[in-house]
Design goal:
Elements lengths: L1 H6 L6 E7 L3 E4 L29 E4 L13 E4 L20 E4 L4 H7 L4 E4 L2 E6 L4 E2 L8
Antiparallel strand pairs: 1-2, 1-8, 2-4, 3-4, 3-5, 6-7
Length: about 140
């Protein structure tokens, strides 16, 4: 799912719209003026894949009340977040699917996690006051 969005250029020009220093950086769906970009149909939750939401891992964001609602949004864990791993039955305990990890550039993640945030657009808080833009996402050769 994530790779398809990368191939389509979906993430180019999107922002990290939610930054919580000791939790995560969330992005992949909004333009710098906080307009929601169109997404494909949501995918099934695969949080039971054996991977844990540890610092530097990348996970699929979803609506907390809907287990199988992941779309284009993703988050980078800024700390170990085992509370986001599957812990039982029901949507609230279904966990968030880890599908990757930051292999280079955690210093950039750490700089983003401390930007000033607040209320902005449709969000009550945690939005960077100066947009943190993903200029381009691309697949690299091995």
């Amino acid at each position: 799912n994530f790779l398809a969005y990368v191939r389509d250029g979906h993430y180019n020009g999107t922002v990290f719209h939610r930054v919580i220093k000791d939790l995560l950086l969330q992005g992949g769906a909004y333009t710098p003026d906080l307009q929601l970009k169109p997404e494909r149909a949501p995918i099934a939750n695969e949080a039971g894949n054996g991977l844990s939401n540890l610092r530097g891992t990348i996970s699929a964001a979803r609506r907390a009340s809907e287990k199988d609602s992941a779309g284009a949004q993703f988050f980078i864990n800024t700390v170990d977040n085992r509370q986001l791993d599957p812990s039982g039955a029901g949507a609230f305990n279904a966990g968030y699917t880890v599908f990757g990890r930051v292999v280079e550039g955690m210093d950039v993640v750490d700089r983003i996690r401390v930007v000033p945030t607040g209320k902005k657009g449709p969000f009550p808080g945690d939005v960077p006051q100066t947009p943190v833009v993903i200029e381009r996402a691309q697949l690299l050769e091995d």
